[in-house]
Amino acid sequence: MAPQTALKHRRSYASIDLSILPEMDCLREWPEPIVRVQSLSESGAPTIPAHYVKPPSERPTAAPAAAGLSIPVVDLGMLKDGADAASCDAATVKAIAEACREWGFFQAVNHGVSPGLLRRAREVWRGFFHLPMEEKQRHANSPMTYEGYGSRLGIQKGAILDWGDYYFLHFLPLCLMSHHKWPALPPTLRETTDEYGEELRKLCRRITRALSMGLGLEADHLPVAFDEEGTCMRVNFYPKCPQPELTLGLSAHSDPGGMTILLVDDHVAGLEVRKADSWISVRPLPDAFIVNIGDQIQVLSNAAYKSVEHRVTVNASSERLSMAFFYNPRSDIPIGPIPQLLTAHRPALYQPMTFDEYRLFMRKAGPRGKKLAG
Fold first, then answer.
1. Spatial CA neighbour of 104 closest among 237, 253, 235, 213
2. Nearest Cα to 352, choosing from 336, 374, 330?
3. Does the pLDDT at position 7 exceed 80?
4. Burial label, 287 (beta-carbon count in 10 A; 0-12, 13-18, 19+)
């Protein structure tokens, strides 16, 4: 299936080929031997292997970069939690809603998560990726769940790969979370990651309430879809690349879940967001989060909020670490547009589908373009 074509011209999930789902149940190994990108980088080779070279139309220099544009910055200092959600500062709710309607992205400052915790989280995970390879290989993952240490997304044999390694883990539901699946080294990694996951879950709940109010709904209306929510994280490590103009750290894609909160290196840029026909480079603010809407909230909002394509570039001089926290709806109930948002002039744009079904489709296809119209 070519990039951009999966659902882009059909306003329905129905165009997803669900015949792939039994195939996923049978696939327990990657289609080709896994080579760690960090090992390739540290080998000192002056060129990258051919299966990392993107087609010319997908390379970082293929699309114009817009100068002077940047994603919105939203101060969350007045964003209330719990019973106070309905009294959230109206200006904050408006700023979040406008950013998600126009961009699908914003940088969040004064978000309430301790800068010290952010630094500790980065430090322990950078420490993991600099452990000896044999230690990391103990956590090698499979395409069934992606959980663990990985170096590719998608299962298509002969695919052009991205220049990056990662570690994927679950927080919720508890039936999926196991500390034994998390690295034991560095020694404080598990404790720090637990604390980080709990703080980000609280932040996601606050933002989701604001998104609900931004649609003209009660504060708790949109969060109902996230009862028994799923939360997980992918820690991305992008090593130095000798030919960054030929490849990407992560191909252009939209996120399949509900919402993503990204913590990036303060000093190394790499994330780019699509705006019309241009790519906007995100310049990270110190101790800020980058928040973006995923496909499930685009569906729930009937495309009022946008799940937008983004990608990651790499460079020759610096490695880069990012931590993507995914906030997802309950996976076994159909997700469709909220009925209160539908009118004769704005009917439902999507047919309901469970997140489990959608996620398995994405797991086969890998990060390849935007899967939803709207």
1. 253
2. 336
3. no
4. middle
Three-state secondary structure call for residue 336? coil
C-alpha closest to that of 282 among 322, 222, 247: 322
The three-class DSSP label of residue 190 is: helix
Sign of CA dihedral 139, 140, 146, 149: positive
C-alpha span between 150 and 236 (Å, rounded): 10
Residue 114: CB atoms within 10 Å: 12
Q: What distance in Å separates the CA atoms of residue 197 and residue 126, rounded to the nearest whole number? A: 17
Q: Which has the minimum average pLDDT: 82-86, 87-91, 138-142, 217-221? A: 82-86
- Measured N-to-C along each axis, helices 189-214 and 115-129 cross at an angle, to the nearest 10 degrees, of 130
Backbone angles phi, psi at 328, to 5 degrees: -120, 155
Q: Given the structure tokens 């060129």, which residue do they identify?
A: 47
Highest mean pLDDT among 13-27, 315-329, 350-364: 315-329
Rounded Cα distance between 221 and 231, Å, is: 19
* 364 close to 23: Cβ distance less than 8 angstroms: yes
State which amino acid sits at residue 305.
Y
Q: How far apart are the first and last CA of the chain?
A: 20
CA atoms within 13 A on the CB side of 369: 15
The CA distance from 157 to 130, in Å, is 29
Q: Determine contact, residues 124/237, Cβ cutoff 8 Å.
A: no
Say whether pLDDT at 232 is over 90.
yes
- Nearest CA to 257 among 215, 291, 219? 291
